[in-house]
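[Structure tokenization] protein backbone as discrete codes

[Encoding] learned vocabulary of local backbone shapes

[Begin record] amino acids and matching fold tokens:

___
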Amino acid sequence: MRTAAATRGPARAGASGSGAPAHLRPTVTELRLSAFAAHRAAVFPLGPVTLFAGPSGSGKSQALAAYQALAGLGCGSPLDDVFPDPVARVPETAVPDADGRRGFRIGCTVDGPVGPVRLDLAVQAEPELRVVGERLSQDGQILLSTALRDPRRRSVQAGWFTGGAVGVTRAPLPDDRLGTALLPLRVAGSTAGQRRVLAAAEQVVVALRSVFPCDPRPERMRGPVTPGEGRLRGDCANLADVLRRTRHECGTRHALLAEAARTGCAGPVAALDVRVCEGEPGGGDGAFGAFQAARTGLVTGLLDRGPGRPATELGRLAAGELRFLALALVLLTGPGVLAVDPAAELLSARQALTVLADDLDRGLDRRQSAELLRLALLCGARGHIRLVGAVGEDTAGTARDLPGVSVVDLSP
């Protein structure tokens, strides 16, 4: 059972108190798991680069799953999409009430231009999945509160701060959605109180929508791909297509990726390139293969080994090299290149993208892991990219010696 988290690294940026830096971009700076799987009364500060460490079964993946679930709800997804197996998130020691109900609680704090805003959510997993309570608050003021009043109805009773003579506006909201994400559609903003509610809700939604869960799958990255819009998917299967795009559109970032490849890939690396395949995957050469290549436009990624050396196709690289290249590309790019749908109501320059990477260092050696941490710190210092990952002890040991990296230790 997790009751607290020991954190090594800098204090939480943007925390309240004298001398604390202001957050110009909405960012999740604290994750709370009051009762979620193995975690109880756990509070995890999140900095620009935060790594969860601990032995197998300590709850690293569960913490990232809670963050990803909040992100999905912030995007407007229904509960059953976000929690496909909700009973697995209920603490094993949770005892059902007289009506057989069990559930879990999660929450976060989002810092930004309006200051820290707290979001707390109570979810019923049994006998049916539904929201039973939600609270949005700031500086002790409850801005939104919902509660399940009638279990027979598929709605919760919501009340949000209005101010003035009315005080609070009440209305039903769906019990399978995050109420905070619905407020911009329900609140007019005609009073100072309503505008405060809208500002807080929009800050939370922007931060939760600006999340990119990433799990590069080398077995899906080896073959040629059809050129598309060049937005990297979460499994990074279309890595070659994105390399094609960055080579033409993002010369500086592409050069930084090539520089990182010299550290993370075996052998000499002069550049990263792409080429049109000589046919469809798995067969065809000669005139027929050339015809298929022209018709399909399949491309494959290459490591340029320099003058006089044959290039190496990505499909020939080791799994660790492919994962390294994909993760380095994620850290060096942003929402315009990654397959995310950030909030349209705020300029991209005013948003910070958070990369969620469970098992971040899977298949990587120390040299590759250290280079990824260097890139994360480099990009995190600019305020546009944040990293929250789960790592093994070797990477955690390296990270503990790096200024700017926060390590959340879940060891017993």
About this structure: The first helix runs from residue 60 to 74.
